[in-house]
Design brief:
The complex is a heterodimer. Chain A is of the alpha/beta class. In chain A, 42% of the residues lie in helices and 16% in strands. In chain A, helix 5 packs across helix 6 and helix 16 packs parallel to helix 17. Chain B is an alpha/beta fold. Chains A and B meet through helix 12, helix 14 and helix 29 of A and helix 4, helix 10, helix 11 and helix 13 of B. Chain A: Pfam families: NAD_binding_4, PP-binding.
Chain lengths: 821, 380
C-alpha cells in the first residue's frame, strides 16, 4: 500500500507539473464522461471501514493497517465493498484525480502529505486549512466543491467522486447496495433559512440546508453500530472505587478538568492516552493543555499520572500489544472523554474519533478483567429539530433527522455502546450540554459553540430568540462526572449533565445585570446581522463561529439547539444529592463573570471600556485654592469635571470612575487645562491609610492635564474620612497636589464641591446612556447610587469604629473564673 | 443565667502544677519516628514552645523550610496522616521541614489556660527564637518560611521589624500585611466578642469536652443556625469560625477523616486576643498592641509603613473562596506593588479553595503545593 501511495503521489506531481499522461481538465472530462456512461460507478478501492482487533479501530491515516487486516467478515468494509464492487473499471481515473486532490491537500497539512483515502481533518487539518484547501482546489484544479461538501467528507477519493461536473444520478450503486433506509420527508418545513442564506452567505447559496442525513452516512452508521456485536460477553466488574483509571481526552477542555477532579476526589492513578510521538512529547502536550486551562501542573500532578502516547482512532489505541494487555489486566475503570468536536465536519470524518474510538475502549473494557466504561456522550444525541423532550431515559433523536456529522457520530457512539451493554459491559453515558467556562478560573473552551455564542452576544449586544440554553459550567460537569466514576452504585446508567437550563429571559436579565443590555432578535435576523458584523470586522477567535453560521449543516445543529426543549436530569440530581455534591446552579451572570473577563482578556469578548459611550455620567464642580507647597494657598483653583462609568463591571472589579473635564488655575496657565486622562478610585486600597494614623482615604483622584500651550501636568487628590463630626465636608473636600509631568508637586491646596451643587449635579444630574429604556435607566441610576452610597458609608464609618474600639479597650479586664485555668 | 457556671463538673479539677511545666501534646503523623526530632525550645520570654525537625540525616544542602501554623491550629496541620501533606511533598522535593508550635498552638495549653499573650509576643519572641535555633543547626543553608493565617500575620510583623533577616523566601497563606474581614465578621468579633469577654475566656470547638448543657451551649446553637453539617465541631468552625460567622474552609475539600479530626486539629480560641485582632482589623494593617511597653519597641507601630524592611521574596497565596480573610492577599499584593515597588511580591490565587483547606484539603497537594514548590524551586 505504501508503494501505491507513492505512485499516486508521483502521478499527482506529474499532473501538477502538467507533463503527466493527462492534465487535470482532461482527467475531469474523462471522469465525468465515464460517469455519464456508467451511472453505477462512484468508486475507488474500498476506503476501509475499520478492522484490526476484535472490534474496530479503523485508522484512516494508516491505510496499510486496514488494507492488510480487513477481513471479509468485517461488516463495515463489506457494505462498502458491496457498494463499490462493480465500478472497478472507472476507478483509475477517479483515483488519479483523487491523487491530484491529495497532493493539493498535502500542502495544508503538518505532515505534508495525505493518502487518498485518509481524512483531511484526521491528518491534522483545521477548519481554516480546509477553507484554504477548497479554495486551492477550485483555483488550481478547477474543482468547485461546496465548502459543506468538503467538510462532510474530506477524503480525497471521496472528493474526487463528488466532482460536480457530473453529479451521480440517483439510484447509484451506493444507494442500491445500501440497506433499505427510508428517507422520510423533512420533519420541519424548510426554514426561512434559505432567504437569509442567500443574502448573507454566497458560499451557501446553492443549498437551502439539508433536512435529513445523507444516505451514505446512514449506511456507514449502521455498519458501525454492528461492530458492537463483536464484543465478547463480559462479567460484572468489582464494585469498588477505581484504583487505576484510563482517561482519554485529557488534553481537552472537559478531559483536563476531569483529570484533576479524578485525582482530587479519588486515590486513583490515572493513565492518560495522549496523541503524541513519545512519552516526553505526550507529557509536554498534556502539561501545555492543562496550563492553558489554568489547571495545576506540578510534580504532584505528574506523580499520579502516566501518559500513554497513542491514538484513539487506531486499533488497540495505537498501543503496543504488551501495553494493551497490561492495561486490560490492570485497569479498573475507563473514562472516554476524547472526541472530535467539530460542527462542520461530516460523519465520515468524525467516526474514527467519535465512534470507533469509544468502541475500541469498549473492547479494552471487555478484555482482561471486566471494567466499567464511562463514556462522555452529548446532549447532541437529542439534537433533532422538533424533539419533544430530553430526559435521561427519553428516546434519542431519529438518526435520519440528524444532519450534522457531530450529532450523528455522538448518536452512533451512544447507541453502539447501548448494544455493548447487552454483552454485559457496564457502560455509563454522561451527556453534558453546553459546557460553560469555569466559574472560578474563567477557563473556557475556545472551540465550544456556546463560548462562541456567548462572546458574540456580549460583543454585538444581541441574542437570538432561543428557548433554553442547556449549559453548565465545566467545574460542575467534571465534578459530577468524577463522582460517577468513583461511585460503583452510579455506574451503568445514563446521566444528563446539563445543569439548570436558562431561559431567554434569564440570559437577557443576566446580561443586563452585567451592564450589557442586549436586544432579542429572531434567529434569522440575528444570524444575518452577526455574520455581517463578523465579516465587516473579523475577530480572529470567532472565525469558527463565522464558518458555523455559514454552513447549512451546522446551522441545522444550531437551530435544533436553540429551539430544543429544556434538558431534564432527574437521575443526576438524585445522585448529586445523595453524594452531597454541589447542587447544579443556573449558569448565571455571577458564574459567567470570570469567563467573560477571560474572554475579554483574550480578545474574544469585549467589556465596555473608557472610549465607549458611557453607561452613566454626571458632572462635578469644585472650587478652592492652591498655593506653592509649604506656603499658604491663595491662588483660586476650580475644576469642572464629568465623571462617567462604562459599565457596572468596571465599578465592581476596579472601583474606578473615568474623569473628563477642565481645570482652571491661574498658577498653572491662564487658559483652562484639559483632563487628558483621569481616574477616580472609590475607597482606594480598601481605605488603608497612607501612613499610620486615622486618615482613611475615601476617594483618590489622578488626573493627567494638558494646558493650552502643550505643557503637561499631573494632579493627585484625596478625600479622607476621619473620626470627626464634619462628615458632610469630608465627602466634599479634596486635598490636591499638582506638579509638572514627571516632577514632584509644586502646588498644594484644597478644593471643595460646593454644598449646593452636590445634590443638583451628582444625584439629580445623573445621566444614563440614551439607548436604554426608561426602566433600565432608572435601574442604572439607582444601582450606582446604592453602590456609591454604601461604599461612602463604609469608608466614613471606619475611623469611628476605630475610635469606638479604643474606647472598648479601656474596659476593665475581668478576672477569669474558668475552671481550666 | 445560662452563663453562670453551675456546680456541675464537666471535668475533674486539674492538679496545681508545682513541678511540671506545660507539655506538648504528641504529634500525630505516619512518619518513621526516627525521622522526627523534637527540639526543646523556649521563647525569649521563657515560654515553652515546640520545634520539630523532620528528616533523618541533616546532611547535604537541603534547604530548610519552617512551617508556621495558624492560631489555635498546630504543627499537626502540616502532617495529616490521611492525605498527601505538605511535609511529605517537601521531603520528596529534597527539603528539610521544620515545624514550629508557637504559643497559639493547640498542642500547647496557653490558649485555654495560663498567661495571656498578644501577637506582639509571637512576633517578638517566638518566631525569631525558632529562626535562630534553626540557623544554629543548618548553618548557611537557605531557610524558607511557609506561614498560614495568624502565623503569617505575626511573621509579617517580625519581618518588618527586621528580627528575621536573610530568609530565602516567604510563602504566606490567607493574610499578610493587610487583614480584611467581612463587615459581618468584624461586627460579630468586635461586639459579640466584647459581650462575651467578661463571661468566658475562650470559645471551645469540641462539644464533647464541654458537654451538651453548658454556658457554651447557646454559642454552639447560634453557630449551628442553617449549617449543613450535623457535626457541632464542624459547625462552629466551618460555618462560623469560632462564632464569627465566617467560613473557615470549603466543606467538600476535607476528607472524612480530617473532618472527624477537626477537634484535634483546631483548639479553643481565646477571647482575650480579640482586642489586638480587632485593632489590627480596623486599621486594615498589622499594628503593634503595646504602645507604652518598651520591651516591644523593636516592633514597628505599623508593619505596612515598615514594609520596606522586608528583604526576601514573598509569595502570597490565598483560596479564591477564603471566607475569613476574603481577598486580603490580593489587596496586599496591590498595596505593596504601589507603595513598595522594589519588593519581590507575587500573588497566586487558588481557585475554589477556602482558608484552611489550602493545607487541610485532600486535594491540596495537587492544587496548592505545586505553587509553593515552584516558588521554593526558584529561590533555593
Amino acid at each position: 500500500m505504501r508503494e501505491v501511495n507513492q505512485d499516486t503521489v508521483a502521478e499527482a506531481e506529474a499532473i501538477e507539473r502538467g507533463g503527466g499522461p493527462l492534465d487535470v481538465p482532461g482527467l475531469l472530462a474523462k471522469v465525468s464522461e465515464r460517469r455519464r456512461t456508467q451511472p453505477g460507478d462512484a468508486a475507488g478501492p474500498a476506503p476501509g471501514g475499520g478492522a484490526g482487533g476484535a472490534v474496530a479501530g479503523a485508522s484512516p491515516t494508516e491505510p496499510e493497517s486496514h488494507e492488510s487486516r480487513t477481513g471479509p467478515e468485517n461488516p463495515a468494509s463489506r457494505t462498502e465493498a458491496e457498494g463499490t464492487g462493480h465500478g472497478r473499471p472507472a476507478a483509475r481515473d477517479v483515483h488519479a484525480l483523487a491523487a491530484a486532490v491529495s497532493a493539493v491537500a498535502g500542502r495544508f497539512l503538518p505532515g505534508g502529505e495525505l493518502a487518498v483515502d485518509a481524512d483531511f481533518f484526521d491528518a491534522g487539518g483545521s477548519s481554516v486549512d480546509a477553507v484554504e484547501f477548497a479554495a486551492a482546489l477550485e483555483e488550481e484544479l478547477g474543482i468547485a466543491l461546496d465548502l459543506d461538501e468538503v467538510f462532510a467528507d474530506a477524503r480525497p477519493i471521496s472528493l474526487a467522486r463528488r466532482v460536480p461536473h457530473a453529479p451521480p444520478p440517483s439510484g447509484s450503486a451506493t444507494r442500491e447496495a445500501a440497506p433499505p433506509v427510508p428517507v422520510p420527508p423533512a420533519p420541519v418545513p424548510p426554514a426561512p433559512q434559505g432567504t437569509a442564506v442567500t443574502t448573507a452567505t454566497p458560499a451557501a447559496v446553492t443549498s437551502a440546508g439539508p433536512a435529513t442525513a445523507r444516505p451514505e452516512d446512514l449506511e456507514q452508521i449502521l455498519a458501525d453500530l454492528a461492530l458492537a456485536d463483536r464484543l465478547p460477553f463480559v462479567a460484572d466488574p468489582e464494585p469498588l472505587p477505581p484504583r487505576r483509571i484510563l482517561l482519554t481526552g485529557a488534553t481537552g477542555f472537559l478531559g483536563g478538568h476531569l483529570l484533576l477532579d479524578l485525582l482530587r476526589h479519588s486515590d486513583a492513578h490515572v493513565y492518560c492516552l495522549v496523541r503524541a510521538e513519545d512519552e516526553d512529547a505526550a507529557l509536554t502536550r498534556l502539561g501545555e493543555a492543562l496550563k492553558s486551562y489554568r489547571l495545576p501542573w506540578s510534580s504532584e500532578v505528574r506523580r499520579r499520572i502516566t501518559v500513554l502516547p497513542g491514538d484513539l482512532r487506531r486499533p488497540h489505541l495505537g498501543l503496543t500489544d504488551e501495553t494493551w494487555a497490561r492495561l486490560a489486566r490492570e485497569l479498573d475503570s475507563i473514562v472516554g472523554v476524547a472526541a472530535a468536536v467539530d460542527f462542520l465536519r461530516g460523519y465520515q470524518s468524525l467516526r474514527g474519533s467519535n465512534v470507533l474510538g469509544p468502541l475500541t475502549l469498549a473492547e479494552l473494557a471487555a478484555t482482561g478483567r471486566p471494567k466499567p466504561l464511562h463514556h462522555i456522550s452529548s446532549i447532541a444525541v437529542f439534537n433533532e429539530v422538533g424533539i419533544a423532550s430530553m430526559g435521561e431515559d427519553d428516546p434519542l433523536a431519529h438518526i435520519d433527522r440528524l444532519v450534522s456529522g457531530y450529532d450523528q457520530s455522538k448518536w452512533a457512539a451512544e447507541v453502539a455502546l447501548r448494544r455493548a451493554r447487552d454483552h454485559g459491559l457496564i457502560v455509563t453515558a454522561l451527556r453534558p450540554g453546553g459546557i460553560g467556562g469555569h466559574t472560578r478560573t474563567g477557563a473556557y473552551n475556545p472551540q465550544d459553540l456556546s463560548s462562541g455564542l456567548i462572546s458574540a452576544f456580549g460583543r454585538f449586544r444581541t441574542v437570538p430568540a432561543f428557548r433554553y440554553l442547556n449549559a453548565a459550567p465545566v467545574d460542575w460537569v467534571s465534578r459530577v462526572a468524577a463522582a460517577v466514576v468513583c461511585e460503583p452504585d452510579a455506574w451503568g446508567f445514563d446521566y444528563n449533565l446539563t445543569g439548570v437550563p436558562s431561559t431567554l429571559d434569564d440570559v437577557v436579565r443576566d446580561m443586563a445585570l452585567g451592564g450589557m443590555h442586549v436586544r432579542v432578535q429572531d434567529w434569522d435576523e440575528w444570524r444575518t446581522g452577526t455574520l455581517a458584523r463578523l465579516e465587516a470586522e473579523p475577530v480572529p477567535g470567532l472565525a469558527f463561529l463565522t464558518r458555523v453560521l455559514r454552513s447549512p449543516t451546522a446551522l441545522k445543529l444550531c437551530e435544533a439547539t436553540l429551539r430544543g426543549p429544556a434538558a431534564e436530569m432527574e437521575r443526576t440530581a438524585a445522585l448529586v444529592e445523595a453524594l452531597g455534591l454541589p447542587p447544579a446552579r443556573r449558569y448565571d451572570a455571577r458564574a459567567q463573570l470570570k469567563t467573560f473577563e477571560k474572554l475579554a482578556e483574550d480578545g474574544l469578548g469585549r467589556l465596555p471600556a473608557r472610549d465607549d459611550p458611557p453607561y452613566l455620567w454626571f458632572s462635578e464642580t469644585t472650587e478652592g485654592t492652591v498655593g506653592p507647597v509649604g506656603a499658604p494657598a491663595d491662588v483660586p483653583c476650580s475644576m469642572a469635571l464629568t465623571l462617567s462609568i462604562a459599565s457596572m463591571h468596571q465599578l465592581v472589579s476596579e472601583r474606578r470612575v473615568d474623569v473628563r473635564g477642565t481645570l482652571t488655575c491661574p498658577a498653572l496657565h491662564t487658559e483652562p487645562l484639559t483632563v487628558e486622562r483621569g481616574d477616580v478610585w472609590v475607597r482606594p486600597e480598601e481605605g488603608i491609610p497612607q501612613r499610620h494614623g486615622m486618615k482613611h482615604p475615601l476617594l483618590r483622584y489622578r488626573l493627567e492635564l494638558v494646558d493650552a500651550s502643550g505643557g503637561r501636568w499631573w494632579l493627585e487628590g484625596r478625600k479622607h474620612a476621619r473620626a470627626r463630626r464634619d462628615l458632610w465636608r469630608q465627602t466634599r473636600a479634596l486635598t490636591v497636589e499638582i506638579g509638572p509631568a514627571g516632577e514632584p508637586a509644586t502646588l498644594a491646596g484644597e478644593v471643595v464641591v460646593p454644598a449646593d451643587s452636590y445634590v443638583r449635579d451628582q444625584i439629580d444630574g445623573i445621566e444614563v446612556d440614551p439607548r436604554l429604556t426608561g426602566r433600565e435607566k432608572r435601574a442604572a441610576k439607582l444601582t450606582w447610587l446604592a453602590w456609591f452610597g454604601l461604599e461612602m458609608g463604609r469608608g466614613l464609618i471606619g475611623p469611628f469604629a476605630r475610635a469606638a474600639a479604643d474606647l472598648l479597650d479601656l474596659r476593665r479586664t475581668t478576672t477569669l473564673t474558668e475552671r481550666h485555668r | 443565667m445560662i452563663f453562670e457556671s453551675r456546680t456541675r463538673k464537666t471535668a475533674a479539677p486539674a492538679l496545681r502544677r508545682v513541678r511540671t511545666a506545660p507539655a506538648l501534646r504528641p504529634l500525630q503523623h505516619r512518619l518513621d519516628p526516627s525521622a522526627v526530632e523534637e527540639i526543646e525550645l523556649r521563647a525569649g520570654d521563657g515560654v515553652r514552645l515546640g520545634l520539630t525537625r523532620i528528616g533523618g540525616d541533616s546532611g547535604g544542602d537541603r534547604p530548610a523550610v519552617l512551617l508556621l501554623h495558624g492560631h489555635t491550629a498546630s504543627a499537626d496541620m502540616f502532617l495529616l496522616p490521611e492525605t498527601r501533606n505538605l511535609v511529605d511533598v517537601l521531603l520528596d522535593e529534597g527539603c528539610e521541614p521544620w515545624l514550629l508550635d508557637w504559643r497559639g498552638s493547640c498542642r500547647l495549653p496557653y490558649n485555654a489556660t495560663g498567661a495571656r499573650y498578644t501577637y506582639d509576643d509571637v512576633a517578638l519572641y517566638d518566631i525569631p527564637a525558632a529562626v535562630a535555633r534553626i540557623r544554629e543547626r543548618i548553618g548557611d543553608r537557605p531557610l524558607f518560611v511557609v506561614a498560614h493565617c495568624i502565623g503569617s500575620l505575626c511573621l509579617s510583623l517580625s519581618l518588618t521589624a527586621g528580627l528575621v533577616p536573610g530568609l530565602a523566601g516567604v510563602v504566606s497563606q490567607g493574610v499578610f500585611l493587610t487583614p480584611k474581614l467581612a463587615g459581618r465578621t468584624s461586627l460579630r468579633m468586635s461586639l459579640a466578642g466584647e459581650l462575651l469577654r467578661s463571661r468566658i475566656d475562650h470559645i471551645p470547638v469540641d462539644f464533647r469536652s464541654v458537654g451538651l448543657w453548658s454556658k457554651y451551649t447557646p454559642l454552639f446553637a447560634l453557630a449551628s443556625r442553617k449549617a449543613g453539617c450535623p457535626d457541632p465541631t464542624c459547625r462552629i468552625l466551618h460555618h462560623s469560625a469560632w462564632g464569627t460567622g465566617a467560613s473557615l474552609f470549603v466543606h467538600e475539600h476535607l476528607s472524612e477523616t480530617t473532618h472527624g479530626r477537626l477537634a484535634d486539629l483546631l483548639g479553643p480560641a481565646p477571647l482575650w486576643i480579640l482586642p489586638h485582632l480587632r485593632r489590627i482589623e480596623l486599621a486594615r494593617t498589622v499594628v503593634r498592641w503595646h504602645d507604652t511597653d518598651h520591651r516591644y519597641r523593636a516592633l514597628p507601630p505599623n508593619a505596612l509603613d515598615a514594609a520596606g524592611r522586608i528583604d526576601t521574596p514573598v509569595l502570597l497565596i490565598s483560596g479564591s473562596e477564603n471566607g475569613l480573610w476574603l481577598d486580603s492577599q490580593k489587596l496586599c499584593h496591590q498595596v505593596l506593588a504601589r507603595r513598595q515597588p522594589q519588593l519581590d511580591v507575587r500573588y497566586t490565587e487558588i481557585p475554589g479553595y477556602g482558608h484552611l483547606d489550602t493545607f487541610l484539603g485532600r486535594g491540596a497537594a495537587l492544587d496548592v503545593y505545586g505553587h509553593i514548590l515552584e516558588f521554593l524551586g526558584e529561590h533555593r
